[in-house]
Write a structure and sequence with these properties.
Number of strands: 7
Strand order of the largest sheet: 2-4-5-7-6
Bound molecules: adenosine-5'-diphosphate
Number of helices: 5
Distance between the termini: 56 Å
Strand content: 15-25%
Mean pLDDT: 91
């Protein structure tokens, strides 16, 4: 009986690992398709504008200037994308160094919001520290900056009109610190809350590159947060907008 039970357990584990392997393989294929598509779009544009110059279609200095500027912008898009891709694969291979330090998120966001308000006068940015007098966590400051910048960039890219409201709040519960980062932008459908963390997934594929995104931002966010021992999830807000929740283990002692 025991042999049978153990055999059955082994069979289930094998089945699970086969399924995980299949999922991984599928993600890998999707990622290669995503990279090829996203790199070929700006490349096609660059080729088109260069041949426009070579064929003499850009026959005035203004037109030439416009063509050259477009080529430069598309090359910058590709550059940004390759940088994101490089970071993404370094995180995947666990080759990105993390230097963990104790950071008080209450103080961090107080400063961060002040700076962001100065830089982005069109956005309303509010911070609610909640009942946390201090919210100490162990993070790599540079990588945490990257996470918050990605969330901010998305809230700006996917805002409804010319302005938008971002609200950041902290909740300290027992041994964790939860950070809510929410906006009042176009939001996502309830069924997309997990998919947006996949590489190259976009809720609106047609808008893809027009929004200037690499499609890797949230995949990078998830990898960084998990590498720091935390979790990140997305929630569609009632009445529109997106809420991102990041939970990190609380660091012991004061900051
Ligand atoms: P991208 O570079 O395309 O912005 P991300 O990985 O950062 O890639 O985001 C994946 C997708 O999730 C986006 O293409 C967008 O459809 C959706 N998304 C991300 N953040 C927001 C947000 N704040 N509001 C609405 N949709 C969002």
């Amino acid at each position: 009986g025991q042999v049978c039970e153990e055999f059955d357990e082994m069979r289930l584990r094998l089945k699970e690992s086969k399924q995980a392997e299949k999922r991984y393989e599928q993600q890998r294929k999707q990622m290669i398709a995503g990279i090829s598509h996203d790199l070929s779009t700006p490349l096609t544009a660059i080729k088109g504008y260069v041949s426009g110059i070579l064929d003499g279609i850009a026959d005035t200095p203004e037109k030439r200037e416009h063509y050259l500027r477009t080529i430069y912008d598309r090359a910058c898009d590709m550059d940004k994308m390759v940088d994101s891709l490089f970071l993404f694969s370094k995180l995947d291979l666990d080759q990105e160094p993390f230097h963990m330090e104790r950071v008080d998120l209450a103080a961090y966001f107080k400063d961060w919001c002040k700076e962001a308000r100065e830089k982005l006068p069109g956005m309303e940015i509010a911070f609610h520290p909640g009942p946390c007098a201090s919210a100490p966590v162990l993070v790599d400051r540079l990588q945490f900056d990257r996470v918050v910048t990605n969330l901010l960039d998305n809230s700006i890219k996917y805002r409804k009109g010319d302005s938008g409201k971002i609200e950041i709040s902290l909740r300290c519960t027992g041994n964790t610190v939860a950070l809510d980062f929410q906006d009042d932008g176009i939001g996502i459908a309830e069924g997309e809350t997990e998919k947006i963390f996949e590489s190259f997934y976009r809720t609106d594929p047609a808008r893809g590159n027009a929004a200037g995104g690499s499609g890797l931002g949230l995949a990078i966010v998830r990898r960084i947060v998990e590498r720091m021992g935390g979790r990140v999830s997305a929630h569609a807000r009632e009445g529109g907008g997106l809420r991102m929740t990041i939970t990190l283990p609380k660091a012991e002692g004061d900051v």
